[in-house]
Amino acid sequence: MVRAAVLPAVGAPLEIAEIDLPAPGPGQVRVRLAAAGVCHSDLSLSDGTMRVPVPAVLGHEGAGTVVSVGEGVTGIAPGDGVVLNWAPSCGSCHACSLGEVWLCANALTGAGDVYARRASDGSDLHPGLNVAAFAEETVVAAGCVLPVPDGVPLTDAALLGCAVLTGYGAVHHSARVHAGETVAVFGAGGVGLAALQAARIAGASQVIAVDVSPEKESLAREAGATDYVVASDATAREIRSLTGKQGVDVAVECVGRAVTIRAAWDSTRRGGRTTVVGIGGKDQQVTFNALEIFHWGRTLSGCVYGNSDPARDLPVLAEHVRAGRLDLGTLVTERIGLDGIAGAFENMVAGKGGRALVVF
């Protein structure tokens, strides 16, 4: 038996419980977690903004050590350090055939499986976003693990599984920031802090961080922000003032709220680009009029998982880590145990801190 954070029902508080994990079956891998990041997507799953079968063990950003492998698993062996990949591509759907593996139609089919049972009553448990990282150990499909790159500490490697792939990918793959461009990043949580570092790595000439919390300014500047704006009704005007009244070339929205998406759009120059990373609810309606779309000539695009291919991008991120360009530790503002996840959710709702990391 292992301890895990169980979501018994949508909207219910997480419960720390013991669960029974089976031995890995054919094509499966058992992993002992070293660390798991607490992502806003976990909060969205718990409150019903995103839907998954429940009861479930959440957590999708993690890294650990392989304990055992099932029949037919090759390339991974007990003792190997691995990063969990919550969105494995099938390789055969239409999106995968186009090379857009981040849009794989079958990436989340495993979330509907029963992967474990609650020890107290034998009730079925689902694996959240495929990997159930809020547990001491988990059993996942072999496609859900990737080797930890050399030179990346196992605990820090957990952040590569979502926050860094998403933030870095939003800047490099979706927005395609070029050296010398100006960038605004809305939201200085884990993903936003990764996006700020990515903008710096891309050679942006000015990087403006925006957040509701004045206390996050030091975090944002450490990540690479050259300017900091406390979010208000005047955010877009402030950003335009900081950029010679032109607006930024690129805005990256990491919050998922209608007002923030609209502010990001309004903060870009004529012909600028806005990438939306944040996951909002169906009630968050964003409106534009036809004339402004023509006049401003801006581009608004969604971004899933940073438009990343983990197998391709993890080695690139690792090289940035080894070279000192990417500092994973600066994303983490709190290290907690399983019992601290509920508090981490509360901090996210309140807009406090960067990434909380569950360390096992």
Note down, in words, how this protein is organized.
The chain is of the alpha/beta class. It has 11 helices and 18 strands. The chain has helices spanning 40-46, 94-97, 154-157, 163-174, 190-202, 217-223, 235-242, 258-267, 290-296, 310-322, 341-350; strands at 2-7, 15-20, 28-38, 56-57, 61-69, 81-84, 116-118, 124-125, 137-141, 145-147, 182-186, 206-211, 227-230, 248-253, 268-276, 299-302, 332-336, 355-359. Helix 4 (163-174) packs across helix 5 (190-202). It is globular and about 60 Å long. 50% of the residues are buried.
Task: Give me the secondary-structure topology.
Blueprint: E1 2-7, E2 15-20, E3 28-38, H1 40-46, E4 56-57, E5 61-69, E6 81-84, H2 94-97, E7 116-118, E8 124-125, E9 137-141, E10 145-147, H3 154-157, H4 163-174, E11 182-186, H5 190-202, E12 206-211, H6 217-223, E13 227-230, H7 235-242, E14 248-253, H8 258-267, E15 268-276, H9 290-296, E16 299-302, H10 310-322, E17 332-336, H11 341-350, E18 355-359
Parallel strand pairs: 11-12, 11-14, 12-13, 14-15, 15-16, 17-18
Antiparallel strand pairs: 1-2, 1-4, 2-7, 3-5, 3-9, 3-18, 5-6, 6-10, 7-8
